[in-house]
Amino acid sequence: MDNIKSWTAEDEAIIATNMDATECKRCAVELGYWKDDYISYFVRHADRKAPEINRGYYARVKAMEMFIHQFLERCGTKCQIINLGCGYDTLYWRLKDTTQAVGNFIELDFPAVTAKKCHIIKRNKQLLQKISNEDGEVMIRSGDLHSDGYHLLGCDLRCLGEVRRKLAAGGASAALPALLLAECVLVYLRPDAADALLQHLAGAFPRCALLLYEQCNLGDTFGEVMLRNLSARGCVLAGERLRMRPAALVERLRGLGFDAARAWDMQAVWRALPDDDRARVEALEMLDERELLLQLNTHYAFSVATRGDIFADMDLNA
């Protein structure tokens, strides 16, 4: 499948969720929840979000960082990160500012998203410089961006043949440890397509870890409201799967070819954060609706699935 295709209204609604998430992240960054020197290149302005939204994004970002750090501690920088449904995520640039820049970083998303991201990168020297190789070469071909160690590729994740071709074009290697990232992306795939994608990735990378963040426990009244709100925007999620509890997510991931898996709702993640981190964040904004934050946290899950013994002990409290 080429990058040129007809997108449905549902596809367009899913694409729009990228900007929503980026605006939420920019708001939290501006308020001091975490540091990100690059988010402002991708969204110029963000209206202030509710405190529970800001705290939810903080817990999500911190959970990703914790497990990315664990992965890189175990395998070093001679590995690859594959960001599924990357949107305007700035992880590549943030890692480049540390000692943890990885050997190869591949980002996949709808061509409409990657084309805009590519345009933003090209027009901002601070972004472009960090993806250039020693010769300063950045190649753009058929709407995809390639450099030495960074590849931004337009791809429909529902089409396995296209996923295989794009990963090959990005230099993905079965011989290297792989960290697979999927933040609120698989929920927008039909259940059979999501399962086929995960099963393929588990089989393609014998030594890998998957970090998965998505909704869960949506079988109650609060969850039904979440589903209706998304449906009203044109996003029809895989409802039955999202009604699963974290324990059921573990069984699903093991059934798709991963050796081990763990899952927690975001309230467990929040409680696992260091006391001083939580105290600092709680001092940033007054939170009147503590019950609402609890409800949000219990309706999102963070899952880790692994293949290969070296990653088997990745854990929330590691």
UniProtKB/TrEMBL annotation:
Give the enzyme's EC designation: 2.1.1.233
Q: Which molecular-function annotations from GO does this UniProt entry contain?
A: protein C-terminal leucine carboxyl O-methyltransferase activity
Please provide, in alphabetical order, the Gene Ontology terms of the cellular component aspect for this entry.
Answer: cytosol
**What are the GO BP annotations of this UniProt entry?**
methylation; regulation of signal transduction
- Please give the superkingdom of this protein's source: Eukaryota
Principal EC category: transferase
User: Which reaction(s) does its UniProt entry say it catalyses?
Assistant: [phosphatase 2A protein]-C-terminal L-leucine + S-adenosyl-L-methionine = [phosphatase 2A protein]-C-terminal L-leucine methyl ester + S-adenosyl-L-homocysteine
InterPro entries listed in its UniProt record: LCMT1, Ppm1/Ppm2/Tcmp, SAM-dependent_MTases_sf
| Residue intervals passing through the bilayer | none
Which Pfam families is this protein grouped with?
LCM
Residues engaged in binding S-adenosyl-L-methionine? R60, G85, D156, L157, E183
Q: Which UniProt keywords apply?
A: Methyltransferase, S-adenosyl-L-methionine, Transferase
Name the family.
Belongs to the methyltransferase superfamily. LCMT family.
Tell me, what does this protein do in biology?
Methylates the carboxyl group of the C-terminal leucine residue of protein phosphatase 2A catalytic subunits to form alpha-leucine ester residues.
Protein name per UniProt: Leucine carboxyl methyltransferase 1
Give me the gene this protein comes from: LOC113500944
